[in-house]
Every structure is written in C-alpha cells, then in structure tokens.
Amino acid sequence: MNVLMIGAGDIARSHARAVVKLGGSVSGAFDVNTAGLARFAKEFDCAKLSYEQLDEYIAGADYAVLSTPPSRRLDYVEKVLSAHVPLYMEKPIATTMEDAEKIIAMAKKYEGRIIVGFAHRFRPAFVKMHDMVASGMFGEPVNLFSYRVGPGFGYGENNAVYGNSWRTDPKLACGMTIESVSHEFNLLTSLAGEFESIACNVKGTIDAIPQYDTNSAMVMRCRNGAVASIMTSWSSGAGANLKGFIGTRGSVLLKGRNMFEFDQLTYKTLDMEQEETLTFNDSYDLNKDAVIYHIHAHFQDCLKNGKAILTPLAEGVKVLRLSTAALESSREGRTVALDDYWRI
C-alpha cells in the first residue's frame, strides 16, 4: 500500500519500515523539522513535502500516518479525513477533550476510518495473554494490574538530554498520564471491561515543568466489581514491566525485564498442579519496528478486507477520557465516578 507520513520523527521510521516490510511504499513525508524531514526522505527514498503539497499527496495515499505531537493535529486530521483517506493516528489522539470532540466531529462528518496506535495491544505476548483470559480458563476477573517503570522523560540527568523532545516542551507537553498510561488503560480494559471509578495521584520530577507528571499511581473499580491498579514511572533507573490478571479460577502474569519488554508469560489454573511459563522474545527496546509492524498488518487487513478495527477512534477517546479523569482525581484529591466520562 502507498502510505503518507505526517510527522517524520523516530517513531515514523518504525512506521515506514513496517509499511515497506508489508510490501508497500512511503510516497512522501512532512515535518516542521526540516533537517529531520530531509534525513527521513533520504532514508526512505520518498518525497520531502512542503505543507502546501500535503493535499495532493494525501489524495494519492491508501492511508496516512499521523505522528505529530498530539496537541498539533486538528488541521492534519481534517486534511486526511476530508479527502476520505484512512488514518493511522498515534496515541494519544489529543491532549484535551476539546480537541478530541473536534476529531470525533470530523470522523462523523467524513465517515473516517481511523486506527489509534495502541501498538502493545497487538504484540504476540499480550495477544496470547488476552486470548487465554478471553477463553475463560482463569474465570471471572477479580484483580488486574499493570506496573511499568524505567528511565524516561524525567529520569535524573537525562532530563537535559530529553530537553529537545516535544514531550518536555512546555508548549507541547502533556505528561505521562495522558501520553503513556494510555497503553495501560487500553490493555487492562481489554482484559476485564470498563471502569466505573478511578482514584489517582501523580507527581512530576522535572523542576522546569512542574505540571508535567512523570509518575502516576491509581486504583480503579471495574463495572463487573473487579479491582484494578496502575503504577507507572519515567523516573526510575531500574526498569520492569508486569501485567497481571487474577481470576476466580486462576491467574496469569506477563513479565518483562525493562519498561516495555515482554519476556515471560506465567500462568496457573485451579486444576494445574504447578504454574507453567511461556518464553517470548517480544522486545520494544530492541525491536520497535517489529512491534509497530503488527498493528500496521492489522490495519491493512482491515482496509483490504472490510474488517473491524480493533483500536478505533472510540478507543482513543475512551482512553483520553480516563487520563483526564485520573488527572482530575489527583488534582482534586477525590475518587472520580466515570459515568459522565463515557458520554460522547
């Protein structure tokens, strides 16, 4: 398929490699960083576009990939959707619900087909965990959790290194709870359904951007009565990743040696004498391209064969609403009931 890139940073390279691996090509790329755009265009032998050329190249694309900072997307979203071209949008879809509502309106107006880039939902190790839970072998959910920590935007002396990233630009920054905890919300609700309440506390570690949270801890109550918890940090020197599902008939844990790694899936049901472990080499740090490949393969299959998209715009909206509610809980020091957050 012929794909256009809007945003040509590091993650865009993984998107482009996925497209090429699937037998497609990158027709062109646009970025406000002209030096970065030149490097990208040279690597993928594609057109280096000006803003004025976007409409022409969008019209000729099978789909577009949007990986600009999330607070700078409305113009690009309308350009793509108004041309009736499908859109791959990196998460989070926006940093405010006001922008999200505008994207919803555009999608309805133009009948847009959108996938939101929750790439970890498509990784083989998590797919295995999800399928095992969905089979019912562990019974009904009782307790589910995600703990993910490591050195990131907020770790020690690395703050100076990350200063040139949009993530720590005061005009663009949205913080960990909106940008990264979005993955946790997506994964946990896929295992046990939606949440009915949330209580959260956040803390930042970048003195220059006090409103930028780099640590987040929260507890949720699921609609079916199960409890859920999330703890994430970008300011830990040591890394670890743990996803868990404890059910009425068994438990399953997905473990990783670093913040985004999936190495072992360990499980045990009531009728098993001892736990069993499956080993995976499912690494985001070492092979980001492979992680991104799986979601592009899914999106292209959906576009070619008319299948339902697993992480559509509605999922991106839901996750942003959860992040917004979590920050409200932290700011006001109270548990937030989520009923109003589900209304679009």
In short:
The chain is about 35% helix and about 30% strand. Strand 1, helix 1 and strand 2 form a beta-alpha-beta unit. The chain has eleven helices and 15 strands.
Helix and strand succession?
EHEHEHEHEHEHEHHHEEEEEEEHHE
Helix content: 25-40%
The computed structural class is alpha/beta
- Beta-strand percentage? 25-35%
Structure explained in plain terms:
The protein has 344 residues and is α/β, with parallel strands linked by helices. The protein folds into two domains: 2-112, NAD(P)-binding Rossmann-like Domain (Rossmann fold, 3-Layer(aba) Sandwich); 120-286 and 312-342, Dihydrodipicolinate Reductase, domain 2 (2-Layer Sandwich). Helix content is 35%, strand content 28%. The protein has eleven helices and 15 strands. Strands 14-13-12-11-7-10-9-8-15 form a nine-stranded mixed sheet. Helix 1 (10-21) packs across helix 10 (288-305), helix 5 (97-110) packs antiparallel against helix 11 and helix 9 (181-192) crosses helix 11. The chain is globular and about 60 Å long.
